[in-house]
Amino acid sequence: MEQTEARTVPLALELKGITKTFGTIRANYNVDLDLKHGEILALLGENGSGKTTLMNMVAGIYYPDDGQIFVDGEEVVIRSPKDAFDHKIGMIHQHFKLVDLFSAAENVVLGVKDGTKYNIKEVNERVREIADRYGFNIDPKEKIHEMSVSQKQTVEILKVLYRGADILILDEPTAVLTPQETSKLFAVLRKMKEHGKSIIIITHKLHEVLSISDRVAVLRKGEYIGTVNTSESTESSLTEMMVGKKVSLSIDRSEPVNTVERLVVKGLSGVNEEGLKVLDDVSFSAFGGEILGIAGIAGSGQRELLEAIAGIYSPEAGEILYNDPKDGARVNLRKKTPLQIRELGVRLSFVPEDRLGMGLVGSMDITDNVMLRSYRSGFVLLNRNDPKKLAEEIVRDLEVATPSLKTPVRRLSGGNVQKVLVGREIASAPSLLMAAYPVRGLDINSSYAIYNLLNEQKERGVAVIFVGEDLDVLLALCDRILVINSGRVTGILDGRKATKEEVGFLMTKSDRVGDAETKGGAA
Amino acid sequence: MKIIEFLLSALAIGVTFLYGSTGEIITEKAGHLNLGIPGIMGIGAACGCAALSVMIPAGADPLLPAWLIVIIALLATLIGGALMGLLYSFLAVTLRSNQNVTGLAMTIFGTGLTKYIFNALEKKDASYLRALPFFRFPFNNTSSALQYCGILVFIGIGVAIAASLILTRTRVGLHLRAVGESPATADAAGINVTRYKYIATIIGSAIAAVGGLFYVMDYQGSKEAYLSVEAMGWLSVALVIFSLWRPYLSIIGSFVFGAMFILGSYLPSFGVIIEPTIIKMLPYVVTIIVLIITSIRNRRENQPPASLGVSYFREDR
């Protein structure tokens, strides 16, 4: 057998029929993928399309339910990151795993058991050697906590190279980088390719795919769509592969009536903790009696935008004007505290990835969680009666499945937790309701319950802002869709007329200045 | 020469704290705040003295040669401390109980058991005290403060230096520090986090336990010594903060602590009259001052291990 195959060069990595499910959610289904020696393969897909899960199975974080993995033509079993390293596969995760207090070299050598005596000076030398070979600009002795994000990423890459990896997987490496840093990273990746390394880069940014990769593999909703040569693709052909055809959902959408301008955002700009720009000159209006959808790749500035309106995040520039429905007065929300903004009738319910991370206290019951929004009323002793009534209402109206009002929230299922979270905000009769990812992880029925809630609010004349992940839902629910891309508004579309491709394209396209220089190596 | 007496006594009493803090530093470097140290030091003393009273029956000659008696007593102390460390690890690492609560429970349990054991030993004429000269070797025949500087003083300083070298210069030390700083990172790098936590806590507890034996069998050398072991334990925990989690600094720190601890009883002979109990507060006051200074300067290198006190469990996969 070996004699017949010896003449053809085997693939660096081949996946066949990989399937992985988490509970009832199917993250990957029957996925095939192949990676040639010395190529850069882009793995493209929307949020939640299963890119990271798939690669985690190659890196030994997860173990597939079904399917086979071949390295250099031989079937392998990868059960841990160590197994992956033994097959010379290394993955650079989105969230860096580094010890802040250690130097770059100490992090690189951590956990390496090569049988040699530990000598930090030799490690420093070897790290410097690798860095020089691939053109990294890094001091092995520098401590991680003194480094920039891009330097930390470099250390992660060095870690993988130090362990002798020939196949490198990078999970959205550019998400945390500035355009200049991205160009530098791409130069390094090309150099690694010249040295014969095979690279998979996970991304949802089309311009990056086009500038760095040799081939593109596309995943959609956990399934493998296909692989194409980058030189034969365009942004629009890739978008189409990525988002697919429109799925029609039967969400009732009434025509907006008596719309009044409720919120005007003008020229909002701001940076995050790392100093990267997260909001860039964002301007739009939201009207009472309509649902404004916000579409965008995760981390495009949605969170900061909503938090700026709620007064939690302070932007650097711009205006947030609110037309108070009580007296028609126009107020600047940037001058108000979060509490004052709440009192004006602005409500934010943000469902984070871990659901309990924001807004609810897991060990407290529903009544107490409802009370977190009203504990200021009452003198000396808390008024528990009103919150209790409200909690009963939420449980009844939203059909929250709970043994009793006294059950700690963390014992409820995800859908029910979210109903409490959203219900609490709606119950306070807001005039501007912001719901971010309210259906995250919910089953169909619960999702529809939430959509109906939002629609009800809209019909009551509330200005609803809905941040969603699923384009089909955004297109079926929202009256207008604002598309945000790297902190900038790339378009405001009519929810009834827009197509999925249009939205997908606006979400991923890029016309940044810095990209021109990175396009060189696409050939 | 009162001043030399004073310095020698400070060195000796300081070694009690040195054992305790070296053990606690090793444990804390693995991310575990073991507040059971006072109890563990008590148990260490109790186990060692119990072994001694078996080897030296009341009213009879010792059954074994002096050096063997010392080694066996030390082993008993180490085993006692290690068992306490094992219990703590089982609770705080495997069952992931709250570290503060677990540690305090260990102290309460350890102190109680210590008192019980010493009570029993007293009924057998406290014969363990006859081993005192063995522990004060080679200065067992001197009458000055030099007599306290027995063999365990040198071992204690040696252990602290060894711990310092292991933590900073070896792969094992690097891995241990990684576990205490960021267990998730260590785990991802293929380091067995649970094993490191267990071993560090057990070794740390065993080392701390020797401090208790030293205090009772060398420095104090009296029937009542066991009553004050707990206080020595708390000072050891304070010394960890004072020495910024560095074993080599805790060698100097233990001497400073020792000096402040006994200063009160030496002041009258230097011609100063202050209530000694007030002086005994000094180590705690200085620890608070050190905490304030390091918090204000806020240098990452001087902070406790980042995951200290936090239970680690792998994210659900």
Task: Give a written overview of the molecule.
- The complex is a heterodimer of chains A (523) and B (317).
- Chain A has 523 residues and is of the alpha/beta class.
- Chain A is built from 17 helices and 20 strands.
- Chain A is 32% helix and 25% strand.
- Chain A has a six-stranded mixed sheet with strand order 6-7-8-3-9-10, sandwiched between helices. A six-stranded mixed sheet of chain A has the order 16-17-18-13-19-20, sandwiched between helices. In chain A, strands 2-1-4-5 form a four-stranded antiparallel sheet, with helices on one face.
- With 317 residues, chain B is an all-alpha fold.
- Chain B contains 13 helices and no strands.
- In chain B, helix 1 (2-29) packs parallel to helix 6 and helix 3 (66-94) crosses helix 9 (193-220).
- The model of chain B has no long low-confidence stretch (mean pLDDT 91).
- Chain A binds chain B through residues 61-62, 80-82, 97-102, 106-107, 109-113, 118, 120, 143, 145, and chain B through 169-171, 174-175, 177-178, 181-182, 184-186, 188-191, 300-301, 306, 317.
- Alpha-beta classification of chain B: mainly alpha
Might you state the CATH topology name of chain B? Answer: ABC transporter involved in vitamin B12 uptake, BtuC
Poorly predicted runs of chain A are: 1-6, 512-523
Q: What percent of residues of chain B adopt helix (DSSP H or I)? A: over 70%
State the name of the first-level CATH class of the largest domain in chain A: Alpha Beta
In CATH, the architecture of the largest domain in chain A is 3-Layer(aba) Sandwich
- Strand-and-helix sequence of chain B, N→C? HHHHHHHHHHHHH
- CATH class (first level) name of chain B: Mainly Alpha
Give the strand content of chain A: 15-25%
- Rg measurement of chain B, Å: 20 Å
Feature tags:
heterodimer, A: 523 residues, alpha/beta, Rossmann fold, 3 domains, 6-stranded mixed beta sheet, 32% helix, disordered N terminus, disordered C terminus, B: 317 residues, mainly alpha, ABC transporter involved in vitamin B12 uptake, BtuC, 71% helix
